[in-house]
C-alpha cells in the first residue's frame, strides 16, 4: 500500500496542475474575502427574505469574510481531487497503474490517501489567504477583524477541514465519472449554477429548506458553521459533525459507485 501511495504522490508532483489550481484558489479567496469585507461593512450586503437590508456585524461579519473559500472557492480542491483520478484515464496511464497494483480497491484507496496532504495544504492556504486579505480589508472599511475571538480561530480550523474534505469528495466523483472533461464541467455547472439556484429557491420555499441543507455545498458550509447564505437568511445549516458526515458521504458513495462500475470493467 505504501508503494501505491508513493506512486500517487509522484504522479501529482510531476505536473504543475496542483500548484496552478492552488494559486487560482488563493486568488479567488482573496477576491471574495475583500469584496465581502467592503460590501458588508458598508451596509451593501443585500436584502433578506423580508425585503429589509441585511445587518451582518461583529463576529458574524468576520466569519462570513473568513469563510469565503468554503462558500465560493471550494470548486478548486473539488476539481483537483477529480483530476487526480481522471488524468490517468485521459493520458491512458491507468493500465500501467493497474499492472503495478492489480487490486483496484487499493488503487482507489491510495489515491484518496495521497490526496490528504494536498487537501490539507489547500485548506490551510484558503484559511490563511482569507484572513490575510479579509482582516486588512475589514480594518480599512471600518469593521472589526475579531481576530481575538476564539470562535474565529476555531472556524478557521474548521475551514481547513472543510476544504480538505472537498478534495476527497472530488476523488470520489473522479472515480465514478472518469471522463475528465465531463466530470470537471459537471462539477462546475453544479457548484456554480445549479446548487446556488436551488438554495436561493429553497430560501423562498419553506418546504424545501430542510432538504436543501443536505446539498453538498450546504454540507460543506455546515462544517464551519456559517456562510454567506446562512448569514443572509437564505439557508439554515446542519450541525458541524453532520455537515462533515454528509459531505464525506457524497465522496464515499461516488467512490463506491466507481469501484463497482468503471473500475470493475476491463481497462485497456
Task: Please provide a written account of the structure.
By secondary structure, this protein is mostly helical. It has one domain (2-264). Helices cover 75% and strands 0% of the residues. The protein has 13 helices and no strands. α5 runs parallel beside α8. It is globular and about 60 Å long.
Protein topology:
Layout: H1 2-13, H2 17-41, H3 58-66, H4 68-73, H5 75-90, H6 94-100, H7 104-141, H8 150-176, H9 180-203, H10 209-212, H11 216-224, H12 228-231, H13 240-260
Helix pairs in contact: 1-7, 2-3, 2-5, 2-7, 3-8, 5-7, 5-8, 5-9, 7-8, 8-11, 8-13, 11-13
Listing every helix as H and every strand as E from the N terminus to the C terminus, the arrangement reads HHHHHHHHHHHHH
List the uncertain runs.
47-53
What class, by secondary structure content? mainly alpha
Radius of gyration: 19 Å
Instruction: Bin the strand percentage.
Output: under 5%
Biggest sheet architecture: none
Helix content: over 70%
Total beta-strand segments: 0
List the total number of helices: 13
State mean pLDDT (0 to 100 scale): 87
User: What form results from the Cα inertia axes?
Assistant: globular
Please give the alpha-carbon distance between the first and last residues.
Answer: 23 Å
Domain count: 1
